[in-house]
Each structure stands twice: as C-alpha cells, then as structure tokens.
Amino acid sequence: QANLIRSHSAGVGTPLSVERTRMLLALRINVLAKGYSASCLSWVPEKGMVGASGDLAPLAHLTLGLMGEGRMWSPQRGWDHAKTVGLPTIKDECFIVQGIGLITGTQMMSFLAAEAVERAVGVARQADIIAALSLEALRGTTKAFHTIHAVRPHPGQTEVALRLRSLLHSDVFLSQISGKSHRTCDRVQDAYTLCCIPQVHGVANDNIAFVKSILSTELNSATDNPALDYLAIGVNELASMSERRTEADQPLPQLHDCTLHCCVGWLVAWLVGVFECACTCWAARKAPRTVQHRCFSVLAIELLAACQALEFLHPLNSTTPLEKHIRLFLFPIRPWDHDRQMSPDIEAAHMLLREEKVWEAVRPYMDQYRDRLGLKPLPLDD
C-alpha cells in the first residue's frame, strides 16, 4: 500500500493553496466517512468525555488507531490489535505538534447531539400521529385543534394543531367516531393530555428546533453541550404525555377488564411507561438514550393500546389515514382477549417508530390536506 501511494505521487506544477488543500482533504474525509472504503476503525470507549475540556479521551483513542496502536476493527478480523490488522506504526515525531490538534475538540459530543436531534424529530412527529389515534379511541373532540391556534403563533404549537387537523375528522377526511364524540357522555371537555396536545407537543417541537439551530451554526465550535439537556427535557415531555394517555384511569375499561379473561391486561405495559429510564451523568450520552429507550418505548405502548382500543369501537371507523394506514395496514394485531406475552408486540411497534414507518404511512395524507387548504407541503427534512 505504501508503494502504491509513493508510485502515484507524480504530480507537477505549483502546489494548491492552503485553502484548496483543506477543501480537498475535507471532501476526501467525507468520502471515507461513508464507510465503503477499507473500514479499519479505532476502538473508542463511549465514556471519557471531559466536558469543557473537550472529548480528550475518545479522540485520543480515535487517534491511537491512526498511529497504528491499540485495538482496531476490520471486516475480516473484527476487533483486534492494530498490528494484527496490519496497520503500520507511525513515528512519534510526526505527532509533536499535531497531537493536541487531534484530540482537542467536541466532535464526539457533536455527533451524539446530531444523533439525538435526528431521533427526537422522529419521536415528535410520530407522537402527534399516535396522539391522534388515542384521541379517536377515547372519542375526544377535535374542536381543541381549531385554526385559532394561529392567534398564538408559536411555531411548534400551530404546526402540531395543523397535523392533528389533517389526521382527524374534517371535510377532507371524515370520521364516524368523531361524529359521535361527547354526544353519549356527560364529559364537559377532554383530559388535558388530549385537548392540550398542541401546546405540550408544540413546546417539544420548538425545543428540538432550537437545539437543531445550535448544531447547525456551532457544530464545530461548541466546547460543551448544555443544549442537549434542553433537548432531553423537551422530548421527555412527549413520553410523559403519552404515558398519561395510556394510564389506567383513562376511559378504556376494555384494556384492563378481567371480564375479558385478561387478569392483568395492559397494566404492566402501562407501568413500564411510568418509570423513568436511568440516565448517565453526561448530557451528550443521555440525550440519545432518552429518545431511544424512553420515548420510543412509551410511544410504542400507546400505539398498541390505541390500536387495540379502536377495535372496541367497530363498526365505527376513523379517518382514512388513521384507519387504513395505521390500524389496518401497520398493525393487524390480534385482539387482547386474554393475557399473553406483550414484549414482542411492543418491540415490533418500537421498530416501526425507529424506522419512522408510522410517519411515512400518513405523510401523503397530511400533504393532501395541506394541498386542499392551499398550504405548502411538508419539507422533505421535516
């Protein structure tokens, strides 16, 4: 390999400027980062970030592999010593000046932040869809999502209200369930976890947008990431709202009714959603885990519970996007008429949320609703 590089170093002419050489290096790094070439990777422990001093330990482990030392991963040998993988050792003199530059930075915190934001976006937009399912299952009213939200123009709140209107009963998509809401009961209004979805979910969306803007402008300059705590707190509210909608006191007796030979029913699944996940002490590691484990898991339980609850409302049907592409297409779940192992169903729902299948299923209908109202379609990276 060394001879290959030496033999091809046969260029002529004046050298590139410093700026152009850096651009060339950046583009080459971008190609190598895609993972289609070589794929020899350093062994980097996830713990060891120093916060204000940067990611000293992780970046040192990353650089150790470049020096031909430490453990490395290759497709052929898996995790092994760098010498066994076949990487040559670089002389120490080469790192007299560059060592500090190679280990000083916040790249690990930054990529964890970017990962957390990407997952949080998926959680937030699918939480709105699952909340719409729960509202239908609980025969809630759609009046709380009126266009009057625009009078209080918080971006997240108005967007969530619009999403809910595009999924629930409207002139575009009719719902037999919504037409009978509040007509056969003595409720004055829905629980706050239903009628205040735009306000609470909207704040979470605004939090995500705020953190995303920080990452977009300061990805390579921040020395710490307190914004990640802000992200985790905001997204955690989505999980709390979801758990409350699934809670045993909601008017869904079928989910906890022993007369259906379900002595436990959905009680244990609900309890799983109640308890907070144990978080690490650093915000950079905590944020992705909060999104991945707590939020997706709690939303998966609510999704299953709402789909099951809608079974009890047959022959009444919900709107086309909710009925066809969520309950019938994505979740042909067996009725819970007796106790059985629930973990496989929760994991299946969890996987659908991680892959954003729930969002992909209903997004065309949201665009159709916006088109009917003369609104712009959802951006591709929304």
TrEMBL record:
One function term, GO molecular function aspect: catalytic activity
InterPro entries cross-referenced by the UniProt entry: Aromatic_Lyase (IPR001106), Fumarase/histidase_N (IPR024083), L-Aspartase-like (IPR008948)
SUPFAM superfamilies registered for this protein in UniProt: L-aspartase-like (SSF48557)
Pfam families with a match to the protein in the record: Lyase_aromatic
Superkingdom, natural source: Eukaryota
Family membership: Belongs to the PAL/histidase family.
Listed name of the protein: Uncharacterized protein
